[in-house]
Amino acid sequence: MEENGHFQRIQEICAPFEVNIEQLLQIKNQILDEIASNLETKSEYQKPTNLKCFNTFLQDFPQGCEHGRFIVVNVEEENFRIHLYQMRGQREPLVQSEFYEINSKLLENDENELFVHIANTLQMFLKKLQLEREPLAVVFVFQFPLNNQNSERVNFTEYTKRFDFKNQNKDDIDVRKLLESIIMTKCPRTQVVAVISQATAVFCAATWKYPNCAIGVYLGSEDTSMAYKEKTGNFPSPNNPCPTKPFVAVHLDWGAFGDNGCLDHIRHELDIKVDKLSPFPRKRIYEKMICGQYVGELARQIFLICTQQGFLFNGEIGKQLITPFSFNTRHICEVLAESPGNFDNTRLMFDRLGVMKPMDSECSKVHFILECLAKRSAALLAAGCACLVDKISEPDILIAIEGSFYGNCLIYQKFVSEYLRQLTGEGTRFQLKNVEDSVGLGAAVVAAITEQQKFLYQAEEENESDALGTETTETTGNEL
Q1: Which of 118, 171, 124, 125 is nearest to 142 (CA)?
Q2: How many other C-beta atoms can be found within 10 angstroms of the C-beta atom of residue 275?
Q3: Which residues neighbour 387 within 8 Å (Cβ) at sequence distance 6 or greater?
Q4: What is the pLDDT of residues 355-410, one digit of tens each?
Q5: pTM exceeds 0.90, yes or no
Q6: How far from 71 is each of 77, 94, 366, CA to CA, in Å?
Q7: How does DSSP assign 212-261, residue by residue?
């Protein structure tokens, strides 16, 4: 009886984390309203929004025939990766990669020091592969939001995570131009052809593999954003390179949705506590209610409450679990991967975290807590995807999702699919696809398309020049 009472108390603690379909439909419509306001050109109809839409100016999509060798530099929070991609048409590309750590001091001054370090490293990478004399297109990928002023100029809109550059005028910095000037000093045969977000890279990789992909979601442990295919007419811009092309890729930075308080009605006091423990309190609320790192910290907070009240671990919490954010995405996936009654991996995991030999009943409680929190995360992610599915309104839409929480947790995939089905229009057909290691591939695809378009543009100019020369000759001949 006492055990039943403990489980009932845990159910009561987790109950506020449940969201119903009516609440999710409201959130879906709020996201849709903020997107509409971002796309609105008339100032009188624009409303302030936390969610932001950024024109990527990518209007040409992969055809599956992309060829060539390209460099990708993927800059993350604590490291960066340099990849050499050899695109081979419809065959899987060949990839050579190197991994490099970023010294935290490089993130505390300004962008120049980090970019110079990357340029030096890229020079060594090319020398190692004996490619320093080969002309190569380079694409940079960053974690934080990017604002493309046009097809050439890119700004950082805000710095997230450990990035703490002291420069206060980031809007004045043309990131692509700065990268070009620094990289050229060390690698003069290279050319920076694009600077894109991780979500844009995921989207481009997915469209290369799956032509019906219309949405690409990057679901990181600590951050999330997405990119989708928008009708060019819905995102008019004087800087669009070709207004007659039907679609443009839009980067949707939805992590900050809810910063204005519109999600407060479904936030728990523990959400607020986790927010205060984060590196940037009161910012990126939607992100913190979805991403695995924050879901793990919510779970840890509930473990502490249950342990203090004697419902878990005989009232003794493990040493590692005392530390904030020590329970992470990997731990969630390990627990939820096990079927009810089989808790071998859960016991091993808690043993590593300092909790000795939890009983089956305790493992079952942990599984219940994590399932409740994962379900809310999946529901909110589905609400964001559902508004885009309805907006794009195509007969068969593929949604590509990159991230360990989604990729390594089958029950999480099931929750997202179930909620998405309930939140989209009747008869809507969609397909969810887990994609892995797509950021580098997507950037290589962008490089290939950019180079292909440059070649076509040059060919058109030469044809026009030849035609003009012929016309001049004919006119001169007639005069004679």
Answers
A1: 118
A2: 19
A3: 28, 29, 31, 32, 35
A4: 988 999 999 999 999 999 999 999 999 999 999 999 998 989 999 999 999 999 99
A5: yes
A6: 20, 12, 44
A7: TEEEEEEE-SS-EEEEEEEEGGGS--TT-S-TTSSEEEEEEE-TTTTTTT
